[in-house]
Amino acid sequence: MEQFYTIQGEGANAGRAAYFIRLGGCDVGCHWCDVKESWDAGAHPRLSIASLVEAAAAHPGRNVVITGGEPLMYDLGPLTEALHAAGMQTWMETSGAHPLSGQWDWICVSPKKFKAPLPEVLRNAHELKVVVFNKSDFAWAEQHAAQVGPECRLFLQPEWGKAAQVTPLIIDYVKQHPRWQVSLQTHKYLDIP
């Protein structure tokens, strides 16, 4: 769908330079998604792996985030292999709803209620990032935290449209459950893509 060089705005790698490759196509369909234009894969041009790698390599940052849409709808092995061969780190942001493919240096799973993440993807997650839309999301977050490995970092992130209402709840929750951390969409505060 799009590609751009920016600062990672969320989660464990927030604040780090990263090249984003946003793949078109999503069958999860969150009503609060901020990139709904990514859902229709056919609405976006197909690009070769070589052109994607060349564009990423043109920037000094060596971190490449593959996101979507839902990136695991595709076999990501050839893309991640080519990125690694070019000296890039591969990071992925996924709902985890499709089988894992590719070679990853960092996997962020952001589970969605509309299509459950697969246990295999949760077990391989380096980061679990749960978007909090209402108070019931805390129990749902704990259900998924019980399925990740012991080294997986846990983040609670307010849904942007409800940040004023849910951020105080997240702060209180993290204070009571300190294995969790707060994640903010800092790129939105910084007004960058």
From TrEMBL:
Cofactor(s) the protein needs:
Mg(2+); S-adenosyl-L-methionine; [4Fe-4S] cluster
| Binding residues annotated for [4Fe-4S] cluster, in chain numbering | 26, 30, 33
Q: Where is the Radical SAM core domain?
A: 13-193
Which BP terms from GO are recorded? tRNA queuosine(34) biosynthetic process
Tell me its EC number(s), please: 4.3.99.3
| Cofactor, free-text remark | Binds 1 S-adenosyl-L-methionine per subunit.
Q: Which InterPro entries match?
A: 7-CO-7-deazaguanine_synth-like, Aldolase_TIM, rSAM, rSAM_sf
Q: Which UniProt keywords apply?
A: 4Fe-4S, Iron, Iron-sulfur, Lyase, Magnesium, Metal-binding, Queuosine biosynthesis, S-adenosyl-L-methionine
Pathway in which the depicted protein is active: Purine metabolism; 7-cyano-7-deazaguanine biosynthesis
* GO molecular function ontology, one term from the record: magnesium ion binding
Q: Does the keyword Cell division apply?
A: no
Q: Where does substrate bind?
A: 7-9, 22, 67, 193
Q: Which reaction does it catalyse?
A: 6-carboxy-5,6,7,8-tetrahydropterin + H(+) = 7-carboxy-7-carbaguanine + NH4(+)
Output this protein's name: 7-carboxy-7-deazaguanine synthase
Species for this entry: Hymenobacter gummosus
- Give the gene name: queE
